[in-house]
Design goal:
single chain, mainly beta
């Protein structure tokens, strides 16, 4: 019998990379994962993406996290852009994300695909 937690788990997720319109960039996401039901686990939260020059855009996201093996999982997300700072002040758009995670590794991969209007 599977055993699940009694409530949602909060996670802070950070990353760096290179992206179109951002250059060398980073992101910070605050996520809540619902571990009370069998997988895939529902996940939702907010994120801040920071461009090389310091301009930021903000998102809200939802998705799922699916265990794929011992200590590994795949996250599938849909982000909706909700504004930003600097050139992203009135930004809109959306994009999908795929995260491949190995909890034993200090680095993992995330890819994004979508559009932004600013």
């Amino acid at each position: 019998m599977a055993q699940f937690l009694d409530g949602p788990a909060k996670q802070k997720i950070t990353g760096t990379g290179n992206a179109t319109h951002l250059g060398k960039s980073g992101f910070v996401a605050d996520a809540t994962v619902n571990l009370t039901t069998p997988p895939p686990f529902a996940i939702a939260g907010t994120a801040v993406f920071t461009a090389e020059n310091g301009d930021k855009f903000y998102t809200r996201f939802t998705g799922t996290n699916t265990p794929t093996g011992t200590g590994t999982s795949r996250g599938d997300f849909i982000h909706t852009i909700t504004g930003g700072t600097g050139r992203f002040n009135n930004a809109t758009g959306s994009f999908t994300g795929i995260a491949l995670v190995n909890v034993a590794s200090p680095t993992n991969s995330v890819s994004f695909d979508g559009h932004i209007t600013f």
